[in-house]
Specification:
The complex is a heterodimer. Chain A is an alpha+beta fold. Chain A has one domain (7-120): START domain (Alpha-D-Glucose-1,6-Bisphosphate, Chain A, domain 4), CATH 3.30.530. Chain A has four helices and seven strands; from the N terminus they run βααββββββαα. Chain A has a seven-stranded antiparallel sheet with strand order 1-7-6-5-4-3-2. The two termini of chain A are 25 Å apart. Chain B has one domain (2-108): Arc Repressor Mutant, subunit A (Orthogonal Bundle). Helix content of chain B is 69%, strand content 13%. Chain B contains five helices and three strands. Chain B has helices spanning 2-15, 18-30, 35-41, 46-58, 81-108; strands at 33-34, 62-67, 70-75. In chain B, α2 (18-30) packs across α5 (81-108) and α3 (35-41) crosses α4. The longest helix of chain B is centred in the last third of the chain and has 28 residues, at 81-108. The chains are: A alpha+beta, B alpha+beta. The interface between A and B is large, with 39 and 45 residues.
Chain lengths: 121, 109
């Protein structure tokens, strides 16, 4: 993975079993209940997806990794990606999300010296 | 240039630290924040937050203003803006989506 990326991580525990949550991650109709307003997804490695939102936003993705009821990784067409992992826990399923940004490197060059000082602190 | 390239790598190394990243994100989300406010919502002590905020301000990434006995911080704009905006908007989108996922699952059971 490139170092020139930001990451956002989120995690929740839901009471349902991983198999049930997996359906919500991979079935387009279920995805339309929480992820985007209009979803097409060919849920297999290399499969393509199109996600549309009510505000007119549209993102295309390719399935990079898919392990049933465990892990789904989508590569966005802007260079970003999202990995969603499911883990069975005592009270249900832990859903862990990591979204990685596209490259921002040029925007950072000016502030590089400041960050160098910070990284060394 | 090799020099600036190394600097950029360090920028991202610093942002690769989950604690610093969540602090920058928390300050950006709130607009402005003090160490006391942030420590109340993060699993770290006020002292640890204050130290990290001070280091981030020394590095020019946060702007510090005195407000009574406390120091109030805000994210400095460019050139962090694009990346911080991404982090805040994507973070907010996932908060909403995961809440919607929870509701969607609950509806079925």
């Amino acid at each position: 993975m490139s170092v020139e990326r930001m990451k956002v991580e989120r995690e929740i525990v839901v009471p349902e079993e991983p198999g049930e949550v997996w359906e919500s991650l991979t079935d387009p109709e279920r995805l339309e209940e929480w992820f985007a307003s209009d979803v097409e997804l060919d849920a297999r490695p290399g499969g393509e997806g199109v996600f549309r939102w009510g505000d007119g936003d549209e993102r295309r993705a390719v399935v990079r990794e898919l392990e049933e009821a465990e892990r789904l990784v989508l590569d966005w067409d802007d260079g970003g990606s999202v990995a969603i992992e499911l883990e069975p826990v005592v009270d249900g399923t832990r859903v862990h999300v990591v979204e990685s940004s596209p490259d921002f490197a040029p925007a950072f060059e000016m502030r590089a010296c400041a960050w160098t000082a910070l990284a060394a602190a | 240039m090799d020099g600036s390239r190394g600097g950029v790598d360090r920028v991202f190394a610093a942002l690769g630290d989950a604690g610093r990243r969540s602090l920058v994100e928390a300050v950006a989300t709130r607009g402005t924040a003090t160490a006391t406010e942030l420590a109340a919502e993060l699993p770290v002590t006020r002292q640890a937050v204050a130290k990290q905020l001070s280091a981030l301000a020394d590095a020019g990434l946060l702007r510090a203003t005195r407000a009574g006995r406390e120091t109030r911080y805000e994210v400095t704009p460019a050139p962090l803006e694009e990346a911080v905006e991404w982090m805040v908007s994507v973070g907010a989108a996932w908060d909403e989506r995961l809440a919607a996922l929870r509701r969607s699952l609950a509806k079925r059971t």
